[in-house]
Design brief:
By secondary structure, the protein is of the alpha/beta class. It contains seven helices and eight strands, in the order αββαβαβαββββααα. It has an eight-stranded mixed beta sheet with strand order 2-3-1-4-5-6-8-7, with helices on both faces.
Length: 243
């Protein structure tokens, strides 16, 4: 009798455990397969090396955060222009991103140097981003700066950087590094022989409250790359960015 009762009890426990495992497995599968609109499930992280922290609207469909290299740095007017462009892109082009992180790379005098860009890029790497965008350029090549961007690339981070608006007259780094996709504006969408990207000026103008600039073009390209592969939306040729 004791043996039979023990067998029945053991069998009951096994059935109960099997049932729990089965339904736990179903719940787990459902949670992974069920589409979610929550930004907590969106892995796409775009990091921007910028001039400060923008003011974030209350109603926004993606997470925005900011890090500062120097706590005395001010709020960035340029950073605000880029956030406004991203908000418009998310609405008009249906672009999506999980989180946009602004890293203020200005120093105590509100200037951007090769050293502050290196600090910002190192901080960006620690955040495990998918894409990094740089809206500043320096006219002289810097080996240390190039190495930190090479390190980002080795960690599977895609990097976009705007050329100086005077790129016809001077060199622009980090946009001209081989590990970076430099972005310009022009009369049509195209890819240059050096791998740089040209966005149509009239297109970029739609996303800027100021005059169209290479920095707005660059952040649009970075945001679009996060949505690759994807069919064209409106008049934005994803094949230009994604190839």
């Amino acid at each position: 009798m004791i043996t039979k009762k023990l067998r029945k009890t053991t069998f009951g426990i096994l059935v109960l455990v099997s049932t729990i495992i089965f339904f736990s497995g179903c719940a787990t599968a459902e949670s992974f397969n069920k589409p979610s609109r929550s930004i907590d499930y969106l892995p796409n992280r775009l990091v921007l090396l910028e001039d400060g922290c923008p003011k974030v609207p209350v109603e926004i469909k993606f997470r925005v955060s900011c890090r500062k290299l120097d706590q005395s740095a001010r709020k960035g007017t340029h950073a605000q222009l880029l956030l406004d462009a991203l908000i418009l892109a998310s609405k008009n082009l249906k672009l999506s991103f999980g989180e946009v992180v602004f890293i203020d790379v200005t120093d105590s005098e509100n200037t951007v140097t090769a050293y502050s860009l290196i600090q910002g890029a190192n901080l960006a790497l620690s955040l495990s981003p998918n894409v990094v965008n740089v809206s500043y350029s320096i006219p002289n090549r810097n080996a240390d700066l190039e190495e930190v961007f090479n390190r980002l690339t080795r960690n599977n981070v895609k990097i976009f950087a705007s050329f100086s608006n005077l790129y016809l007259e001077e060199e622009s780094y980090p946009a001209m590094f081989s590990s970076v996709v430099g972005v310009k504006i022009g009369q049509k969408f195209s890819r240059e022989n050096d791998g740089s990207l040209v966005l149509k000026e009239s297109f970029v103008k739609q996303f800027s409250t100021d005059r169209p600039s290479t920095s707005i073009a660059s952040v649009l390209a970075a945001a679009a790359w996060l949505n690759c592969p994807k069919n064209d939306v409106g008049n934005f040729p994803y094949f230009t960015v994604c190839t």
